[in-house]
Each structure stands twice: as structure tokens, then as C-alpha cells.
Amino acid sequence: MEKHPSYQALAHVLPKYPRAAGCIFQTYNDILLAQQWTEVQVVELESISRAAITGKKPKTDTTLHVVPCSLAETLSFGWLMKAFSQLGDPPEIYLAITSDDASLVYYKLSRGIVKPHI
Amino acid sequence: ANKKAFVWDVDDIATLRSKHHVCGIFTGTLPHLSQQNLFLGVPMVLMPEEVVFLVENEIAVLVDDPKAHLQPSIAELQRWSAQEKELTQLQLAQLAVAAKDSPEMSEEAVKKRKEREAKRKAAAAQAAAAAGESLFTPPADGAPPPQDSQYSMIIPASSTPFEWYNDSTCVYTTISSAKQAGLWEYPSNLQERAKCGVFRDLWEQGMFMGGGIRFGGDYLVYPGDPLRYHAHFSASILESPAFSLTPMEIVAHGRLGTVTKKSHLLCGWDDETKAVTYLSIEWAGFG
């Protein structure tokens, strides 16, 4: 992992949160290289022991927040609330769910009762 | 009855739906469409959360129906019996009028019937002769046999017209009094309390709730009457902020919701603050 070009941007968080290191690394690479987001940054989320990745989707101007987690983890409603509050209460966050076979899915979680996007 | 609440009066059902936006489910057979169960009728059964909500908001009361049917007196029974007889006579009279009005048989039909009768008589005579018995007296003129007097017994849906029905001793205006009397049990644990709390919160926002089993949730949430709208959300309830939630559930709920053009609502109940927080889940559309 240390020899990977992305390591530098994540060097300050990966050793600090070893349990989440794998999913943070996987999500960061996907966002930066596969989804090709711009202005990608790493934000520490101490209350849930990991880091979030923020950035803008190509050709858009809103900053979105992605919280990585692993399929094997157990979350809770309170955990999600902590994620929201530590990111400064954005209207929505994306949960990036990673797994051992390198698959990654993103789900949008919005605060409140939000009608489905048609 | 048996810890389920039913509504029997059609006017009450209409009020519940239009004024208090509580829908309920029909479970009774429709008398004129009795051979199918796609369309059902009275009585309407209510979800336990709907019952708790209606009683707490003083919109409805719980009645222990079996106990309200007291032993009728002889006089009351006689009056009831007389009334039933009157109804029966009325029905028979109406049937008689209807039979007379039916079209008379055509000439052809009358001739055919006479031929059939003659054949039958001949066959019977042969059989009797073969058996060695003397010919029995010729049967009566070929008149059709008298119709069985058929009438229907009508059982009213509502119990209140009966003279001996008196519910004054078994009406319960609060959930706790009904629980003490052993009539009602819900809510009995945190999970059930959470469901009641979320139901109330969604109702207060003007939503209609239906059963969620069709879409894998606890409720289907409609922004208005279900006859007019498709549900926008399927809701599932998390009974406390610490209750464990796996990412797999988020994937399952999110995907099912998106595919059916709904959002999935995660409703988190906090038993201490008695508040509900909502999170809407949707597939992100990328990745």
C-alpha cells in the first residue's frame, strides 16, 4: 500500500485507523481514478474512527461527502448520525460499501424525508 | 377480540379514512361476491399501531364485544323473533311477486313437457307390471312441484341494534385501562413502542400508512390517500440509535426502493427523547 501513488494523500489517516484503512484506500482510489471526481480531499471522522472523502462529481459544482465502510462491519443509526454531524451536517452523504472481492457500491443517505429522485 | 381490533360500521370506516386518514384492511366476505377474495368487505381490521394511535388521540375507544352481548330477556327475544318473522314474510311475498311476473312458458315448451310426462308414466307402468304389482293410481296432473319457500337470514354487521347489547361496562378509553382488563397488549416492548412512535410521527406529517410487507419494509408511506397516490416510501423502523444495522441491509433496502421508484425511509426511534429521525436511502447511481 505504501508504494501506491495515492498513499501520500492518505498517509495521515491510514495508520491512525487501521481497521478502516482498507476501505478508505479502496474508496479513495475509486473516487479519484474511476469516478474521476475533482477537488478530492480527505476529512478525518474521529467519532467513527475513519476518514471521509469529499469532492465534486465531474462537471458539477457541489461538494459531496463519501463515508467508506466494509460489508463486514456493523453500523447503527447513531453511527450514521455521528457521521453527519462530524461532516458539518450536509443534507446528504454517500455511504461507500466495500467488500473483500474489491466490489464497491455507493448509497445515498439523505437527512429527513426526501422524495425519490425520478 | 383475540387482541385484534375490528371496525364494523361502514360510516365509521368512512370517517376513519377521510377525516383521520387511517386506512385499515378489509377482512370480511362481500355477500354478493362471495366466491372470491380479491375484494373484501366489512369488518375492517386495524394495525395495532393504528389502534394505539386512535385511542390515544381520543378518536376511538376499545369495546370488549363478546362481553357486551348480555343475556337477553324473554320479552326481548320474543320481540326479536317477531321482527325476524316479519322480515321473512316480506321476503317470501317479494319472491312470490317476482315468480308471477316471470314470462309464461311458450306453447312448444308446454307440449314437450306433456310428452315427457306421458313417457315417464308409460315407463313406470311397465316397471310395475314387471314387478307384479298392480298399477298404482295415476300420478297427479303434470303440475310442477311446489317451490321450497326459500328466504335468507340477514345477520347485521353491527351489534348495536340488538336490544340486549350494552357496552357501558366494557368500553375502554385508554390503552392502559384496556391492558389492565386483559383486552389489549400492544405495545409491550421497545420494538412495539418504536413502531407506535414512528406511526404517530408520520401521521402528524399528514402521511397515510399501509402494510409494508409487499416491499420488504414495516410500512408503505403515502403522501395522500392510497387510492389516489402510489407510495413514495417504504419505511423500516430502528428501535434505538444503538440498534445494529448492517451495510447489507442498506444495500437491500436501497436497491429495492430505487427499483420500485420509491425511497426507503430508515426511521430511528429514540426511546429517551421520544423523537424520530429519518434517513432516506437511495442507490447513488454510480459506482
Automatic annotation (TrEMBL), chain A:
The UniProt record lists the keyword Transcription regulation: no
Record-level Gene Ontology MF annotations: endonuclease activity; nucleic acid binding
Pfam families xref list: Sen15 (PF09631)
Signal peptide range in chain numbering: none
Domain of life, source organism: Eukaryota
Domain tRNA-splicing endonuclease subunit Sen15: 26-117
Gene3D superfamilies noted in UniProt: 3.40.1350.10
InterPro entries: tRNA-endonuc_su_Sen15, tRNA_endonuc-like_dom_sf, tRNA_intron_Endo_cat-like_sf
Biological processes annotated in GO: tRNA splicing, via endonucleolytic cleavage and ligation
Keyword Nucleotide-binding: no
GO cellular component: nucleus
UniProt keywords, alphabetically: Endonuclease, Hydrolase, Nuclease, tRNA processing
Family: Belongs to the SEN15 family.
PANTHER family registered for this protein in UniProt: TRNA-SPLICING ENDONUCLEASE SUBUNIT SEN15
UniProt-recorded name of the protein: tRNA intron endonuclease
Species, as recorded: Roridomyces roridus
Automatic annotation (TrEMBL), chain B:
A family per Pfam: tRNA_int_endo
Catalytic activities: pretRNA = a 3'-half-tRNA molecule with a 5'-OH end + a 5'-half-tRNA molecule with a 2',3'-cyclic phosphate end + an intron with a 2',3'-cyclic phosphate and a 5'-hydroxyl terminus
GO biological-process terms attached to the record: tRNA-type intron splice site recognition and cleavage
CDD domains cross-referenced by the UniProt entry: tRNA-intron_lyase_C
InterPro entries reported in the protein's UniProt record: tRNA_endonuc-like_dom_sf (IPR011856), tRNA_intron_Endo_cat-like_sf (IPR036167), tRNA_intron_Endonuc_cat-like (IPR006677), TSEN34 (IPR016690), TSEN34_N (IPR059049)
Region (Disordered): 103-123
Ranges where the TSEN34 N-terminal domain occurs: 2-65
Alphabetized GO MF terms: nucleic acid binding; tRNA-intron lyase activity
EC number(s) from the headed UniProt entry: 4.6.1.16
Protein name in the entry: tRNA-intron lyase
SUPFAM superfamilies the UniProt entry points to: tRNA-intron endonuclease catalytic domain-like
Record lineage: Eukaryota, Fungi, Dikarya, Basidiomycota, Agaricomycotina
